[in-house]
Amino acid sequence: MNTLCPLDNVRIILSHTSHPGNIGAAVRAMKTMGLTSLYLVNPKSFPDKAADIRAVGARDILDQVQICTDMDQALDGTMMAAAVTARARGLPHECFDSRQGAQALLDYARMHPVALLFGAETAGLTTAEVSKCQMTIHIPTNPDYSSLNLASAVQVMAYELRMALPAVEQQPHLPRMPAAFKDIELFYQHLEQVMVRTNFLNPEEPKRLMQRMRRLFSRARLEKDEVNILRGILSAAEKQMDK
């Protein structure tokens, strides 16, 4: 998918937002920087008057918000996803600061839909949500007071995406077809199924094996053909087991 502006391919996803006012403030922050696509995963209250009030002149974006029941639905159709998180993770994905992350994400957005994930105001993104991304982004803050309002975090990342635009547009495009989110998720399901059948993975005590596998393949930035090859290997193994 190619558009006139890479920002048109950037999808902002807010997960389990508690305060509707933050949704309105987020769309205002998005519009000032040229972003127009917002997805909400199970917001506590939306539509809501508080969101309308905080949106001010960005009601057009608010009126086109996509409501999703889970993160898989919100990520469907994307080719790259980045989780904005302040919490240290036990098995961290490749991590960028806000400036580096914006440039890396926008590089994919030149040709493909991408997503930027933000978690709930109190707890942030869950480990499961972060595991569905290929990278994480950390906004540098005062270590003595790192709390950042949700809408403020959206504003910071929207600004960094805007600032990265000129440099990204000047870079030569290297043709490649990254694997779609749904294809990668189907690969993980297939991989887990085969690992269980071969007794490599005990479903009663999975520990963090699949989380480690997700981290491994997220670093590889799998392409469509590569996922097809991996699925083919798994299918061949299953045929041998069936014999």
Account of the protein in words:
The chain is of the alpha/beta class and 243 residues long. It folds into two domains: 6-170, SPOUT methyltransferase, trefoil knot domain (Alpha/beta knot, 3-Layer(aba) Sandwich); 181-242, Orthogonal Bundle (Helicase, Ruva Protein, domain 3). Helices cover 47% and strands 13% of the residues. The chain contains ten helices and seven strands. A seven-stranded parallel β-sheet has the order 3-2-1-6-4-7-5. α1 (20-32) links the parallel β1 and β2. α1 runs parallel beside α7 (150-170). It is globular and about 65 Å long. The mean pLDDT is 92.
Describe what is shown at a glance.
The chain is α/β, with parallel strands linked by helices. The chain has 2 domains: 6-170, Alpha/beta knot (3-Layer(aba) Sandwich), CATH 3.40.1280.10; 181-242, Helicase, Ruva Protein, domain 3 (Orthogonal Bundle), CATH 1.10.8. The chain is 47% helix and 13% strand.
Main traits of this protein?
7-stranded parallel sheet, Helicase, Ruva Protein, domain 3, 7 strands, 10 helices, 243 residues, Alpha/beta knot, alpha/beta, 47% helix
The percentage helix is 40-55%
CATH level-4 homologous superfamily of the largest domain? SPOUT methyltransferase, trefoil knot domain
Do you know the CATH architecture of the largest domain?
Answer: 3-Layer(aba) Sandwich
Which value, in Å, is the CA radius of gyration?
19 Å
Task: Name the strands of the widest sheet in spatial order.
Answer: 3-2-1-6-4-7-5
Mean pLDDT: 92
- The CATH class of the largest domain turns out to be Alpha Beta
Order of helices and strands: EHEHHEHEEHEHEHHHH
Number of strands: 7
Q: Give the helix tally.
A: 10
Poorly predicted runs are none
Coarse morphology? globular
Distance between the termini: 42 Å
Question: Largest sheet, described in full?
Answer: 7 strands, parallel
Percentage of residues in DSSP E strands: 5-15%
